[in-house]
Amino acid sequence: MSWLVTGGAGYIGSHVVVALQDAGLAPVVIDDLSSGHRGFVPADVPFVEGSILDRALIADVLRSHEVEGVIHVAGYKYAGVSVQRPLHTYEQNVTGTAVLLGAMEEVGVSRIVFSSSAAVYGTPDTDLVTEDTPKAPQSPYGESKLIGEWLLRDQGVATGLVHTSLRYFNVVGSGRPDLYDTSPHNLFPLVFDALLDGRAPRINGDDYDTPDGTCVRDYIHVADLALAHVAAARALAAGSPLLHAYNLGSGDGVSVRQIMDAMAAVTGIAFTPEIGPRRPGDPARIVASGELAARDLDWRMRHSLDDMVASAWSARRAHP
């Protein structure tokens, strides 16, 4: 028996694959390589290049590899860009999830861990986000993730699908030097690129109502995130009761200024960030509680901010 990881050649998905192997579980990967990398998938892991929009292909993979459950990571993950590409975002994230669930029902696979997003909360009016915080997504990306959770819920009612969704904010770091974040939109790669190009990274606003004036966010290490996905898969396989959604949060967060200071300390490159204007819609602080995930999924922050920066920097330098 095996676990199918959709999007398993991507930054997050590949870390999930490694964590599954380390846990003694057998991963299988499907990925269309639109943003993933074939080299991120270990040579001994079965890999199928294809789209989650291809129901026949998914059903064949589920059958041929005797899949007992799915960890659904595949999707279009750029919230800002999703505003310009709403139809593409909905096709990949909503239609793709519906097609996947249809193939699972056809084959009789009844367990799924959904890699959701804290973008389902939008800009919450609270200092600490919990699972009960009202959902008010502010981008097609956030909306698509919330709809994905609804699809799982409705399939659970209709077919007995056993499921849980993991919501998280900013994922950083590298679990291994050969697995790294190649996104052109994420903070860490943007800062590293600026430093290597001799440019000063930018902070968008330093006059927020926070201790140092810059925005405070949740940043979690990708290896910790991967372990939570595996813990959820194991719990579903064992029949342990899980909530339908968990926040993977730090409970306190870090500021953009703290990240810049850690970047300078770890890289050894002294710099003074440029200060730009606030970006419209950026709240001062968004931090989630991870208490329920800690209770049920052994969720914890195993890596410090310096660990996150150092691991990401080491991987970045290994792949100029």
CATH topology of the largest domain: Rossmann fold
> Mean pLDDT score, rounded?
95
Note the overall shape.
globular
* Unreliably modeled segments: none
The CATH architecture designation of the largest domain is 3-Layer(aba) Sandwich
Q: Determine the structural class based on helices, strands and strand pairing.
A: alpha/beta
Helix content: 40-55%
Calculate the terminal CA-CA distance, rounded to whole Å.
38 Å
Radius of gyration, rounded?
Answer: 19 Å
What's the number of domains? 2
Report the portion of residues in β strands.
15-25%
Number of contiguous helices = 10
Strand adjacency order, main sheet: 3-2-1-4-5-6-11
CATH C-level class of the largest domain: Alpha Beta
Largest sheet: 7 strands, parallel
CATH H level of the largest domain: which superfamily? NAD(P)-binding Rossmann-like Domain
Helix-strand pattern, N to C? Answer: EHEEHEHHEHEEHEEEHEEHEEHH
Total number of strands: 14
Care to describe what's here?
- By secondary structure, the chain is of the alpha/beta class.
- The protein has helices spanning 11-22, 55-64, 79-82, 86-107, 140-159, 187-196, 222-238, 256-267, 291-297, 305-318, and strands at 2-6, 27-31, 47-49, 67-72, 111-115, 162-167, 170-172, 202-204, 216-217, 219-221, 245-247, 254-255, 274-276, 285-286.
- Helix 1 (11-22) crosses helix 7 (222-238), helix 4 (86-107) packs parallel to helix 5 (140-159) and helix 8 packs across helix 10.
- The radius of gyration is 19 Å and the shape is globular.
